[in-house]
Amino acid sequence: MNDRAPAPGGLALIQELVNSLDLESGADRLDTEEGRSAFGLAPGDVAAARELRESLRAACLAHAGHPAHAPVRELSELLAAGPLLVKVDGASGAASLAPADGSALTARVASAIAEALVSGTWLRLKACEAVTCRWAYYDRSPAGRGRWCDMGVCGARAKMRAYRARKSASPPPDRPVRGSARPD
Questions:
Q1: Do 109 and 14 form a contact (C-beta atoms < 8 A)?
Q2: Contact between residue 110 and residue 80 where contact means Cβ atoms under 8 Å apart
Q3: Which of 36, 70, 93, 133 has a CA that sits 20 to 30 A from residue 127's CA?
Q4: How far apart are CA 52 and CA 79, in angstroms?
Q5: pLDDT per residue over 25-83, tens digit each?
Q6: What CA–CA distance (Å, rounded) separates 72 from 158?
Q7: 45 in Cβ contact with 107 (< 8 Å)
């Protein structure tokens, strides 16, 4: 929906999953074989993937300071089904978390979140505040206060709505406001 660069690291997987549903048109990439294969899903895995997607969207909305868009299952409950392993490199001693089952979407998402927590990027994955959008985006703004997935579309629409609301609330310029003097 926008031209933003994808989220870094494993967050790109989460961003892609959340954005697999276009709320405005209703198009769901998980309905297609190509869309399912992008996530390694069999047709029988789609319901669980959709539940995970909407819980992730709610988390992204929370990162942006917004309530969940719909009642969803707790993300931590869903991620419990995707166990992680601690792997230690014998040569360097470096440790990392990896999915116990690398093919399971939930485990890959859990691993991506763990990686993002360590790198400090998890809270920058947000969902657009536009109600008809809710697209996931990675907030690269210096202060981390981005609000829309695309300023040129969702941001412009929001600003235009605010402008129109202000204009309709103020009296027309040729009519004096009650109680004010009319200029001569």
A1: yes
A2: no
A3: 36
A4: 8
A5: 999 999 999 999 999 999 999 999 999 999 999 999 999 999 999 999 999 999 999 89
A6: 26
A7: no
